[in-house]
Amino acid sequence: MRSLLLGLVSLFLLISCSEEDVQLKYTLRGRAQGTTYSIVYMASAGKDFHTQVDSILFEVDRSLSAWNPNSTLSKVNSGELDSVTDPLFITCIQAGQRISRETGGAFDMTVGPLVNYWGFGAEQRGELDSAVVDSLLKLTGFYNLRMGSDGKLIRPKGLKIDVNAIAQGYSVDLLAEWLDARGISNYLIEVGGEMKARGVNLEGNPWIVGIDKPSEEIQEQRFQVIVNLDSASLATSGNYRKFFVDSISGIKFSHTIDPKTGYPARDRLLSVSIVTSSCMDADAIATACMVMGLDKAKAFVQSRSDVEAYFVFGGLTGDWEVWSTEGFDAMVH
Question: Which residues of the sequence carry a binding annotation for Mg(2+) (predicted)?
Answer without folding.
Answer: 165, 283, 287
